[in-house]
Write the structure tokens for this entry.
Amino acid sequence: MEVRMERIGVAVVGLGYAGRQHLDAYLKNPAVEVKMVCDTPAACEKIPMSGHFRCVADLKEVIESDDVALVSICTPDYLHCEQALAAINAGKHVFCEKPLATSIPECERIVDAVGRKGVKFLTGQVLRFAPFFISLKKICDSDLIGRVFFAESDYIHDLRPFLHGWRANPATAGDITVGGGCYSVDLLRWIVGDVEEVYATGNKLSATVSPFPVDNVIMTLKFADGAIGKVQITVGCRRPYALNLSIYGTKGTIINDRMFTEQIDGLEDFITLPLAKKSEFQYYDREIDALISSILNNSETPVPAIDGAKTVAVCIAGIEAMKTNRPVRVHSF
């Protein structure tokens, strides 16, 4: 006789681009059953209501539902903290899109709540699930390029076509140092290690009509192990989207999909790694698979709340450094 496992009830909160991707991935996952989506009636009308889930406008219905064990938070950045806390305090597992939150106190509240309630929490730093970057991390973790002494990553995106709704309002748009910078900062933290100190400078010359205080930022990083790094965040550039990664080690160098290493005798120039670099936004299904595995096996998620908090803390240190024109120590949790 076949024994069927009870599927995990899921609710997706927010039906923008990320929310629709979460919903599609959940609908394809045999271990879960979508019970609800939560957004305005107008937003609900835009999604194909395949399945038997309900669309509700009030988050309270999601939080109070006994059928929902896992909540995906896919709303604007400034709403992440309160909505995640509501789900956590109700004893529900949470998948929260990046950034975890927009301030240090918000991050502390989430980390504390997860610890108290013992739920599983995944921060949606999707680059960690892209096979391209997973392969580069494996190379860095081996001895192929030696000890990393410098690393840099660029988040280059022309956000001007997306400046509408909450992103067009200075009260809700936030700072690109957190909203965009968390991609590159988290990637470097994951590969190189924790960051202790940040210096940053920025300007507002490329997307001057944007609500952001700056639209181009350079951050220099001091890692705990002595390595240094650089992050560029620009959101008004006139060029295609790019997320670049360069890693310099004592035995070799990686620049995106090219590598040079003195470990290969006779190598005189960079070699191209046989890695397909697809858009990192194609890997929501991998994030969800990892979270479901953590729930079923009672194991830690690949990007727990504390990891999301540490990434935000580096970005916040960058904002403070721009204000004070001095290096800033990264908040520790």
Summary: The two ends are 49 Å apart (CA to CA). The chain is about 30% helix and 25% strand. The mean pLDDT is 94.
